[in-house]
Structure prediction request, 513 residues.
Amino acid sequence: MTPLEQAFRDDRGRVLAALIGFLGDFDLAEEAVQESFTIAAERWPRDGVPTNPGAWLVTTARNRAIDRIRRDRTLATKTRLLEVTEATEDDMIPTTFPDERLELIFTCCHPALAVDAQVALTLRTLGGMSTEDIARAFLVPAPTMAQRLVRAKRKIKAAGIPFRVPPDHLLPDRLDAVLAVVYLIFNEGYSSGGGLAGEALQLGRALAQLMPDEPEVQGLLALMLLLDARREARFRDGELVLLADQDPTLLDATEVAEGRETLDRAFALQGRGPYVVQAAIASLHADEPRDWAQIAALYGELARITDSPVVELNRAVAVAESEGPQAGLDIVEGLGLDDYRYFHATRGELLTRLGRPGEAREAFQRALALVHEDAERRLLEQRLAALGSPQGSH
Amino acid sequence: MKYMMLIHQGSTPTPQDPEAWGRLSQDEQQAVFAAYKALNETPGVTPGVQMQPPETATTVRVQDGRTLTTDGPFVEVKESIGGYFFFEADDLDAAIDVASRVPASSMGGAVEVRPLVEW
Prediction:
């Protein structure tokens, strides 16, 4: 990797955040940062790599932005730069520059923006992904994604969405929104096996480093690491493998260890929120043999926090393992999750184990009708085939 | 930043509908008046003038040079604007905070926070 590629990977988010903070304008900042990397590509090979590449890029981008604004005075009236005095190309390059990525992510995930816009903006600015790549990842035409980004940036400016870490009374809600966006990005990548999971992990790592005292931030990173550790185990020959059937030797041991270390940090911070509990469950799943009773207990705790029938469904699976399929089915039958494919798939599994193939077949067929992903469809079809052909039924 | 705060009463009881208003206790009625008073005294707030209920509105269109009028507001009565005020603050978070203290936002209506163009 060349020094420039490394700077792009390591510093781009920080450089852009600093520029957005300075200019108060996403588009202008993006252009200026782009330009500073172009200048670096010319000069670094010729003049040598600066001692602090990030600070060099920030200073260069700032100077370019100021030049541009000077050329376009009408724009200047609309930016914070009015408060800034002269700046020249041969300014001293500072040794450090403030890390404003937190301010940036809280701006991108502001609740006044729609969630799909929050996700797109976070990937574009902090993840450095191209509009085309984001569009591809979310199966949206590129012009639609471009439009979504334009509208979001326009709203941030026109509506006065602040560039800052929210004050204490707003922080819990706003942090929830940020974590939800990161986890959503992770899940999008996780379910499709695509590259978004890596983006989410990088965002999670940055957040964990920037907010070291927030247990849920550590919890989310731990959860993503422990899930990502299953990346190889989850698929066999392109087919989805159920958690119970996954080969434990395929787990990424380094990620499991890092996940558990992160989880311990969350526990040390007295964390007991939904991400911490989910990470604790994921950690138990990495043990052989599994402590299903403990997993069921943690799902019980998670159900109390989230009040979610989907969590209850997961608890039912753990209870089925520790107390038998009937105990699991008793929980499942009480859940009003008729539109949820995993509800029917879980019923199908439990009914199969209870030796009730007719009802199991019906349940799998209902799950199949609700599925919209190939790997999952094939898994359900295998389950149905294993039940054999219906006997004496219609 | 300057914002126009558009109050949609929705199903919020107001004194303009004595029947619905009468179903509120005295304390609840007093709380509504107190909340509006507090809003009007909030730094940055410029109160709007009071509007008659949306049922009294007349909607005007011009078609082929002819002026057409219809009885009632442009949108549904339930969706129409029941009042407004202006608010000047540093950012949207401050405006969201003020909007959440408008009684309508917690009594069946909503407040639309609309930034104004500044020159």
